[in-house]
Structure formats: C-alpha cells, structure tokens
Design brief:
199 residues; mainly beta; four-stranded antiparallel beta sheet
C-alpha cells in the first residue's frame, strides 16, 4: 500500500460513502460501520458452513498492557485502531504490518483524572484524514497515509477540572464531533464540533 493509494481510499470517505458502503460492507469506514452504528456486516463469506474455517491470520502488539476498547476502522486495506493513551496504529489489514503510529504523548500523570483506565474507543476517517481525541482532551487530525499531524485543538474548557476523553470521534456533515467525560469526578460533560478541514 503506497501513501497515494491510502490517501485516495480515505479521500473518498464522507457521509455518502459511509451510507453506500453499509450495503456492501466492503470497508468498515465508521465506528459501528455506519451512522446508525448497528455493527452489522452484510458480508456473506462467513456463515454457519464456513465459520469453522476461521483462524488467526496475523497478530500485532499494540505496545501496551493497559486497556484496549477500540473498534477498528478499515478503509482501502488499512486498519486504524487506537490503544491505551490514545496511541493510533495504522496497519496493513491483510498482513498486520505497521504503516505508521501516532502518539499524542499524553502526560502519564493525567491518568489519575479518569475512573476507568486510559482507554480510547477509536478514530474517525474523513476525506484523507484520521481524527482521534486524546485522553487529556486534545483533538487531532492526522494525514491518513503518514500519520503526520495536520491540526490539533484543545477541547477542554476548564483545565482545573478532571475532564478526559475516551470516546470515539464522529464526523458528520464535515464537522468533527467529540464529547468528554469526567462525571464520576463531578464535571459536567459537553460536546464540541470542529471544521473537519481546519479544526
């Protein structure tokens, strides 16, 4: 997979692509497959007659012994998945070979601000970019082919309070949407939205 092939594949992903793909299941371009997040694949290759033929094709070490709760996103043969501390891995979906890794370098002392480990539930892809929110409340747009940072925004309105982000990013109508957490420590959650191109 060349950077050009990756950019071309992810460059096609928008709301229309996600809706059309839901009928074929060729890719898994959004959290839960589609905007309804029903997690239902229309693929028919795995069924009651073939399920016994399934086996391990490859494995990849995410580099952490902490919690992993992400749903991978797959577009054009590339799997984008997050690990603990909001680290993003882009892998060749056929071979498991690493294409790139992005580490937002969340300060490790920030881990005490959340209740339930330093997990991240996934990324969004849209028009050539991968979006991820870091545990410490920053939102990143990355080049889908290289993992290079395109832009970064701080989503936290009050840094004196224990806000965190562990949820998966969503993109809808060219807006990147993310919510934060921290209610277990007395903060009140809110949603923020950013322009997908410029932040």
């Amino acid at each position: 997979l060349t950077p050009e092939q990756i950019r071309a594949a992810v460059g096609r992903v928008d709301g229309d692509y996600i809706r059309q793909n839901a009928a074929t299941g060729r890719d898994w371009p959004s959290y839960g497959l589609n905007h309804a997040e029903n997690r239902f694949s229309p693929l028919r290759a795995v069924n009651v007659d073939t399920v016994s033929q399934l086996g391990l094709a490859w494995s990849y070490d995410l580099g952490s012994k902490r919690g992993v709760q992400a749903t991978p996103v797959v577009v054009g043969g590339v799997m984008y998945v997050t690990a603990s501390w909001s680290v993003v891995h882009a892998l060749n979906a056929r071979t498991g070979e690493r294409i790139w890794t992005f580490d937002p370098e969340v300060p490790r002392e920030y881990g005490e601000k959340g209740c339930c480990d330093v997990v991240n539930r996934g990324v969004a892809v849209h028009r050539g970019k991968v979006y991820v929110a870091s545990y410490d409340g920053r939102l990143f747009a990355l080049d889908a082919a290289t993992g290079a940072k395109v832009w970064e925004k701080d989503t936290i309105i009050d840094r004196s309070r224990p806000y965190t982000i562990s949820g998966a990013v969503r993109v809808f109508k060219n807006k990147v949407v993310i919510g934060n957490g921290g209610a277990e420590y007395g903060v009140r959650g809110y949603l923020t939205a950013y322009d997908a191109e410029t932040g």
